[in-house]
Inverse folding.
């Protein structure tokens, strides 16, 4: 059994849903050494999240942003946690809905994603800054 772990920081991105699959693969070239295994991708933040979804049509990512902005509105007067700005508490809620990690099988040295699947960074803040990602992979 082999284990690999790499931590890296994504460049700051605007609010929205961004494909980061290639950056994850580049960060852990040791994936190529695994015939069969698991890759766990974790974000070390509470106002951004990760998910798997459509990797071809960019309108899907725009629709994700539209849906989450309609579903979790900013400037709700009932929010108590608002000292970091109107986008802060909604960002925490969105991150909890989507989650902080994705787990993907590794097959013959590559992520066993479906044809139309990619890893999204879901940036829920207007100015979230760089985001730290921990990738852990293991297998044979």
């Amino acid at each position: 059994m082999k284990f690999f772990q790499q931590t890296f920081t994504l460049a700051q991105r605007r609010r929205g849903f961004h494909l980061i699959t290639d950056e994850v693969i580049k960060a852990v070239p040791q994936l190529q050494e695994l015939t069969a295994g698991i890759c766990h991708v974790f974000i070390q933040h509470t106002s951004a999240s990760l998910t798997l979804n459509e990797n071809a049509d960019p309108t899907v990512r725009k629709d994700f942003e539209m849906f989450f902005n309609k579903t979790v509105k900013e400037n709700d007067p009932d929010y108590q946690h608002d000292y970091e700005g109107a986008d802060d508490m909604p960002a925490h809620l969105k991150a909890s809905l989507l989650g902080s990690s994705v787990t993907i099988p590794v097959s013959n040295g590559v992520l066993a994603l479906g044809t139309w699947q990619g890893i999204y960074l879901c940036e829920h803040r207007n100015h979230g800054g760089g985001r730290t990602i921990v990738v852990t992979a293991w297998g044979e």
The chain has one domain: 2-73+83-139. The longest strand covers residues 2-10. Helices lie at 21-27, 58-71, 88-98.
